[in-house]
Amino acid sequence: FMLSSARKILSKSIVGYAARTAVVHPKPDPRMGETFRDFLDPSEFCEYLLQKDISFFAGVPDSLLRNFCAYIAKNPQCKNYITAHEGLALSLASGYHLATNKIPLVYMQNSGIGNCVNPLLSLNEQAIYSIPALLFIGWRGEPGKKDEPQHVIQGKITDNLLTTLGIKFEILPDYIEGAREAIDDAIHHLNERKKPCALIVKRQTFLDTPAQFDHDVNFAMNREQAIAAIIGEVDEHAAIVGTTGFTSREIYEYRDRHNHGHGRDFLCVGSMGHASSIALGIAVAKPSRHVYVFDGDGAAIMHMGSMTNIGAVNPSNLTHIIFNNGAHESVGGQPTVGRSVDFTTIGKSCGYSNIYKAKTEKELKESIKAATKTKGSSLIEIAVKIGTRSDLGRPKSSPKENKEAFMKFLSEQADIVVRLLQTLQKK
How far is the C-alpha of 20 from the C-alpha of 345, rounded, in Å? Predict the structure, then answer.
């Protein structure tokens, strides 16, 4: 009885203390509307675009645009095309304009502006073909906002980059009246100047609405499970190049959990689609080391031309692994065409000597073992289901620290050790 009474008293004390110390957020004063936080409803925004006869959309998804992308994906009035990279989206949109004389919208993250430089200056430029397009750009790394290092650099130069390219831009307001006015101004400019202009989208501009995409989840592993299975099989002297997004973050956390250190991995924090070319450069310079590239379907598609280079060189110490979940998962889960692409057939046509497909952990491990024993480059396509832990962390070391540790790992002294071990294993 005394124990029960003590528990009740303690419980009341805790509740009372919590009530006294709780932070109370007062309700906004309706007389002070300027203190309210506005969010732009993607449905209202897109409906106004449709009213203005903008119904053609092409681009590469961005996390800041995920609610916008989700709406145009499910609205049958919107012709939406997710392209391999942003430059192709602009070219696709330009073709649409040539055929219809209508204004297309091209969406992207600001890091994708680089992929658009060539068509912007040699196709859409007013002094060349003078083809208008409304660029819709997510502003990662916005000054004054916390973000990843690569986005901070891109964010600082976004406005200057657009100015240098001669592109008029405006920051999209986060309320519908202002957004409509911005659209009207953009359309006027596009019709008058016949060249692209841009709307820049800041973080948390759009109302957060559920974004659901249909993905096939009938696979044995997700990407993180497949990564764990592979690293458990590869030689500790092998080098790994990880593509941008969740893949590199999952590699980093695996190393943390197993106290491996992070010197064996080069983790791309940006440069989407370039991991395989980085790996090829390492492989030809360090023939005594086996190099694995951990790629995604979206990244592999973005710069698929790199596969022709790998096939042409065909180094025996390079294994190209593509985790195919059919989605741009790191920016919101929008679909890629990965599920309908046969990467193994493409790899074989490009000149890879060894081709493998895997769906189970057993098949994956067998493929890894086979790839290390054969001559010529290898390609492994792994079908994985979409799904990432909500508590997935980010690398604690800076990109420069990662680079320095990786270069030390690849040093000549380390190569001597590798050669010695390989010689002993042959004996």
Answer: 67
